[in-house]
Design a protein that fits this description.
Elements lengths: L1 E9 L2 E6 L2 E7 L1 H5 L9 E6 L5 E6 L5 E2 L4 E2 L3 E7 L7 H13 L3 E7 L6 H17 L3 E3 L5 H11 L3 E5 L6 H8 L25 E5 L2 E5 L21 H4 L19 H7 L5 H15 L6
Parallel strand pairs: 3-5, 8-9, 8-11, 9-10, 11-13
Antiparallel strand pairs: 1-2, 1-4, 2-3, 4-5, 6-7, 12-13
Helix pairs in contact: 2-8
Pfam families: RsgA_GTPase, RsgA_N
Cofactor: Zn(2+)
Main location: cytoplasm
């Protein structure tokens, strides 16, 4: 029996990395009865007589997991959003940020395609960079032919399991190819009529890149807040966390409550109003969510 990490799941097989080798495994027979599904990123105990015929015996406890994409034990989310084609969308970016914050995963924001911008648009992106850095996030303005930005991204990957997130067409696979050309991950051109790309990635797989493991995934197909409760949402905005201890009421939702430190910080320009407006939009979405039985 050995311990390894699942680096790919495809057609009922799980590919487990252990001691420099990848073992093709099936799940134990009672997994299905117990409704246990191994995920990419799982640390597992397995038994294999050779690299083609192995069985996963048990799965160690996960520190986090996503359903869509199906992956576990993620340290960092590299959220790629393009400056153009598709157009930069701060509401969508904030939605991604809340989803990864809710899993206690560290986000790294990469704004791609900077080389395609006018001077005025570059200034706009630099302003967004400052806005998100003030909120507490690392932000990298990147072009795929700009090696300093690629090198900076690589430095964040070492020793971590990172998932790539972002809408279709922002250049996730192109970014991975720029970081490590050996990958040769398929990419598609943007559909001009739709203003977005088609997913080129068909399954979740962990690649060894820059001393870490990076998942190129089929995308976050579910961007709703189905698992998030109202009182958890403020914890997903780090700039709120910095001041909410000053609110008069414990459990303040920073909406209609009086003497709210977050609302005061917004009025004083210490918290970006755009981020606060998105927070209120998400709060309303959770409030109006239909109950699940």
């Amino acid at each position: 029996m050995a311990v390894g990490k699942i680096v790919k799941a495809l057609s009922g097989f799980y590919y487990v990395f252990h001691d420099g080798e990848v073992y093709q495994c099936r799940g134990r027979g009672n997994f299905r009865k117990k409704k246990i599904t191994p995920l990419v990123g799982d640390v597992v105990e397995f038994k294999a007589d050779n690299t083609e015929e192995g069985y996963i015996l048990s799965i160690q406890n996960r520190k986090n997991e996503f359903v869509r994409p199906p992956i576990a034990n993620v340290d960092q989310a590299l959220i790629v959003t393009s400056a153009i084609q598709p157009q930069f969308n701060s509401l969508l970016l904030d939605r991604f940020l809340v989803l990864v914050e809710a899993k206690r995963i560290e986000p790294l924001i990469v704004i791609s395609k900077m080389d395609q911008l006018t001077d005025a648009a570059i200034r706009d992106m630099q302003a967004y960079k400052e806005l998100y850095e003030k909120a507490g996030y690392p932000v990298i303005l990147s072009s795929f032919n700009d090696m300093p930005s690629i090198d900076l991204i690589q430095s964040h990957l070492t020793g971590r399991t990172t998932v790539i997130a972002g809408q279709s067409g922002v250049g996730k696979s192109s970014l991975l190819n720029a970081i490590d050309p050996r990958l040769s991950i398929d990419t598609n051109e943007i559909s001009e009529s739709l203003g977005r790309g088609k997913h080129t990635t068909r399954h979740v797989e962990l690649y060894e890149i820059s001393g870490g493991l990076v998942a190129d995934t089929p995308g976050f197909s579910s961007l709703d807040f189905g698992e998030l409760e109202m009182d958890e949402l403020p914890e997903c905005f780090p700039e709120f966390v910095q001041v909410q201890h000053l609110c008069k009421f414990r459990g303040c939702l920073h909406h209609k409550e009086p003497h709210c430190a977050v609302k005061k910080a917004v009025e004083q320009g210490e918290i970006a109003r755009r981020r606060y407006d998105h927070y209120l939009q998400f709060l309303e979405e959770i409030q109006n969510r239909k109950p699940r039985y």
